[in-house]
Structures are given as structure tokens and as C-alpha cells.
Amino acid sequence: MNCLRMVLLSLSMAVAATAVADPIQWPASEGGNGHWYGIVDARLSWTAARADAAARGGHLATITSQAELDFIWTNLHPIRSWLGGIRDGGWRWITGEPWAYTNWYPGEPNGGASEPYLQFSPGLPYNGTWNDNSNCGHVSGCDQPYLIEYDQHPDACSLLDVRRPATWNVGEAFEVVGVDFVEGMSLRIGPIQVTDFSVTSSELISARVPDLSASGIYDLVVAYPDGRMCWVVLGAIVGAEELSWGAVKSMYR
Ligand SMILES: [Ca+2]
Ligand SMILES: [Ca+2]
User: Fold this and answer.
1) I need a labelling partner for 232 at 20 to 30 A (CA). Which of 18, 108, 136, 175 fits?
2) How far is the CA of 36 from the centre of ligand 2 (A)?
3) Are residues 228 and 169 in the same domain?
4) Is residue 12 assigned to a domain?
5) pTM of the predicted model as reported, rounded to 2 decimal places
6) From first to last of its 253 residues, what are the pLDDT tens digits of the chain?
7) 206 - beta bridge partners?
8) In angstroms, what is the span from residue 235 Cα to ligand 1's centroid?
9) Around ion ligand 2, which residues have CB less than 5 A away?
10) Count of domains in the chain?
């Protein structure tokens, strides 16, 4: 367990070193898709930007509806940047989403085979319309930032927390906050798999304190089917019929 934790902690630090500052979520409560968005102010070709986004755990943003464009326009104040569209036979999104909504500037796309990459043009007179462009852009070489979209928060574990009263009895309800709920995820406290949790929302699950039977310091672990694990270290003093939880001591990916 300790070796695994060290490996995972190292991976977490590597991700954190390249994370985009403060990605913004388009929440489901506002009609969004729950994804997170940011601008990576790099100077990259489209193909390099695509790879860079993947290395950060996201992808070049795909704008598949007017509502998604409006969210990005309002909240990110984007600069000229790459999007995840490519002319590959016909136009398509790199995520495989249907190519249905488009927002071309009048006269675009105009580049044919020499401009197979999608560029977002926010400045006047373009106002968030799209342009097809070459792999290096056309302003001053390969000088394009890009819009990144994450299906899940790039550092989801940092959001994990536990809502709990000062003293809990075995069987009492508690909530885990900041979970990326996906089918197949699991929740465990110490050695005990918590199987009777229920999903309150896409980021909140409710469960009941298991009978741990012995005193100790326990991790609450959320494990995702893609291999990610997030955990909160809980100070737990186990009595015959009662758990008393200390403060959250640490948080790791
Ligand atoms: Ca999208
Ligand atoms: Ca063009």
C-alpha cells in the first residue's frame, strides 16, 4: 500500500506541474455537460496542441452547440485558439461527437486541403466564429494557444471531501463530496468495501459507516474503473459501537 501510494503521489505531482490554472466547469445544474474548460496559453501547432491537451488529461475543446459556445464565450473570454475539429475526409470532432453544430465565419471554411484544422476566432469582426487553418496558423507561425476541455476535473482528487458529524455510530449516514460518479467506481474505508452507497448527484454519494471492528487510522478510498484512486486519510478511533473521526489529514491522488 505504501509503495502504491508513493507511485500514485508521484503521478499526481507530475500532473499538477502541468495543470491548467482554474479550469471552469459547465455544470449540469446550468444545463451544461459537467465538463471543465480552460485556455492553454501555449504557442503550438494544432497537432502539438492536440498532443499537449491529451497529456494534460483533456482534449482540444469541442463546441457542439450554441449553448456550449455561449458558456465558453461568457466564462473564458477566449483568445484566438485551436479547437478539436479536423477536416479528415469531411469535418469531424476528434472526440467522435457528431459534427452537427457549426459557427463558421462568412466565407469559411476556405482553405481546402491546406487548412484542415479548426480555429476559434474571438476578436472583432469574428466574434467567436470559426476558421479553418493550416497546422501552424497564419499570424506568426505556430503561435496558437488552445482551448482545452476535460470530461472530468483534471485533478479530481483535490475536490474529494467527506461530510461527517463529530461522532458517528456504525451504520450512520455520511456523504462523500467531489466524486466523479461513474459506473463501476467503488468506495472503501480501510479494508471494508462500502457497497450500500447511493448516488445523490453526479458529485455526491451517501453511504453508511461500516463496522471496522478495530481501532486505527483508515483511508477512505474512491477507486475508478480507469485505475484512478483518490483517498482521504481519516483519523478514526473505533470503539465497541462507535467511530470518532478526526480531521482529514491528507489528500492524495
Ligand atoms: Ca465539448
Ligand atoms: Ca480559413
Assistant:
1) 18
2) 28
3) yes
4) no
5) 0.64
6) 333 333 333 333 333 333 456 789 998 889 999 899 999 988 899 999 999 999 888 999 999 999 999 999 999 888 889 999 999 989 999 999 999 999 999 999 999 999 999 999 888 888 889 999 999 876 566 678 999 999 887 776 777 888 876 666 677 788 888 887 888 889 998 888 998 888 888 778 898 888 776 666 677 888 888 777 888 877 655 554 444 444 443 333 3
7) 175, 198
8) 40
9) 108, 110-111, 115, 131-132
10) 2
Distance 36 CA to ligand 1 centre (A): 9
Run of H or E residues at 2: helix 2-18
Q: What's the 109 CA to ligand 2 centre distance in angstroms?
A: 5
Residue 107's nearest CA partner among 126, 90, 120 is: 126
- Measured in Å, residue 43 CA sits from the centre of ligand 2 at 19
Do 35 and 140 fall within a single domain? yes
Ligand sitting nearest the alpha carbon of 117? 2
Say whether both 139 and 168 belong to one domain.
no
CA 173, CA 117: separation in Å to the nearest integer? Answer: 51
Which range marks the domain in which residue 226 is found? 156-252
Query: Are residue 215 and residue 199 in the same domain, yes or no?
Result: yes
Q: 208, exposed or middle or buried, with CB in 10 Å at 0-12, 13-18, 19+?
A: middle
With cell 459557427, the residue in question is 103
Which ligand has its closest atom nearest to the C-alpha of 58?
Answer: 1
